[in-house]
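In this supplementary section we document a worked example of the pipeline. Step one takes a protein sequence of length 339 as its only input; no multiple sequence alignment statistics are reported here. Step two produces a three-dimensional model, which step three serialises into structure tokens for compact storage. The input and output of this example are shown verbatim.
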Amino acid sequence: MKHRMIGRRSFVLTTTGVLAAPAIVGTAQAAPMKMKLSSSLANDPKYANGRVYYDNLVKHVKGDGLGDRIEIAFFPDNQLGQEIDVINSVKLGVIDLMVSGSSISANLVPLVGTFDLGYLFTSFEQQTKAFDAGAAKPIEEALLKGANIRIIGWAYNFGSRSVLAKKPVKTPEDLSGLKIRTLPNPVVTECLRLMGAAATPLAFGEIYTALQAGVLDGLEHDPPTILSSKFYETSKYYALTQHIFSPLSVYFSEATFKRMDPKLKEGFLDAAKKAAADTRTHGLMVEQEALKILAEKGVTIIDCDREAFRKRVLPQTETFVKARPEAKPVVDLIRSATA
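The serialised model returned by step three reads:
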């Protein structure tokens, strides 16, 4: 199994971390299938979900006996473009793999936005039970049919999404008028609007400078991402609104899947699912650790009035289901699952 991590200076790494030597050309074995995996997050092996998933995937592909048949190059830090551009490239088969929240693909297939409805999930454990009961299947089918993209693994974002701001936020009234960055996704944007914020969609790669410049008053994201991306340097109050427990998706281009050697498909898909399971475990572990470190770095952690926010967001699900009746079975399965 060969793999590469592409850093800002384009170092090419092997599993031992040394510079890769030129490949020896031979006729006994076919050249490895090469794939590109993209993540918008930093190249952080502990707190960035893209890098964590990549490391787990490399481990399982190698462990499942695929040897040198697959070569995966990792591109963190938006190196292949902003997420909205990357997900379209996955659709077209230009990029093979992408690790990101489910939210970004709702721009291609609106039904995926079901998973972004505010306060629909109550925990990641509940999410897994709902997915095991079939809640993910309609989303997977819709994405494959509507965007030519397979979901080959579900993990967790590394914590629920909460609000980091430049001033304390304890109630919806405190959030009123604050320009809070959201994902460029209408469901997430509407959730934050209902919570009271001046919801401001913006590409991930533009967040830090917008916070520095005062274009934003804050953002909503999980604790490890705030830590790994150093957003705490610009904003010092983290309100635990926990408004979205969004799943982490492993997107795989159907075009890549179709051109894959049939002998590789089963082993690769199995490795991808095992890597997702490992990434879920890791994500649960690091959320609380990241909160502790953020506090050590001067961020005030606020246990806000979540019930007040939840009541304001509650109508969002009903409105969404009315507009997209096909979402109702998914919502029902999620609500019936208990952690």
